[in-house]
Amino acid sequence: MSFSHQFIFNPGRWVGEGRITFSSSSEMLRFYTSWVLNPEEDSKIACNQRVEMQGAPEVVENNFSIYDISKSKFGIDLENDLIGKVIGTGVIDEKTIAWEFRGNAGLEGFEVYELQENGDYMLHAEYASDQFRTIIDGRVWKKST
Q: Cα–Cα distance between 20 and 137 in angstroms, integer?
């Protein structure tokens, strides 16, 4: 299936940066991220995302699996060591890729990637778990080889 979006739906490496804020603190942290996107058999896409936060010694590694892809929607699973596996749904339109996770092991949240004219994506995400909320704003772009 062919999309106008290069991010997520085509193989490659993407990098990004931005800021993370937490409802429990006034502190703002810078983050850096990299994505490696690999198509798999059965029209699935495997995405490995690594996130480094300023001042945090450990790197968070998220593994996404994207499947049941149509012109306007897709299924998405997220798995990492902290939360285990959560299942979500995604939507696609000409300018936006977005997904949300609801009612999964106490974690709810969403991510929205908006395509820019230069091919980059602006990112806004919010996640909540118990009484804590995390807000992420940033930008991702295709890493040139």
A: 7
Q: Where are the beta strands (DSSP E) in 1-145?
A: 12-22, 28-39, 45-53, 59-67, 73-80, 84-92, 96-104, 107-115, 121-129, 132-142
Q: What is the mean pLDDT of residues 64-88?
A: 92
Q: What is the C-alpha separation between 94 and 135, in angstroms, rounded?
A: 25
Q: For the chain, give every domain's residue range.
A: 12-142
Note if the pTM is more than 0.85: yes
Task: Give the SS3 label for residue 29.
Answer: strand
**Does position 96 have pLDDT exceeding 60, yes or no?**
yes
Task: Give dist(CA 34, CA 61) in Å, integer.
Answer: 10
Q: Which listed CATH number (3.30.565.10, 2.40.160.10, 2.60.120.280, 2.40.128.20) goes with 12-142?
A: 2.40.128.20
Distance from C-alpha of 142 to C-alpha of 106, rounded to nearest angstrom: 32
**Token pair for 26:** 């006034």
Task: Retrieve residue 8's tokens.
Answer: 């997520």
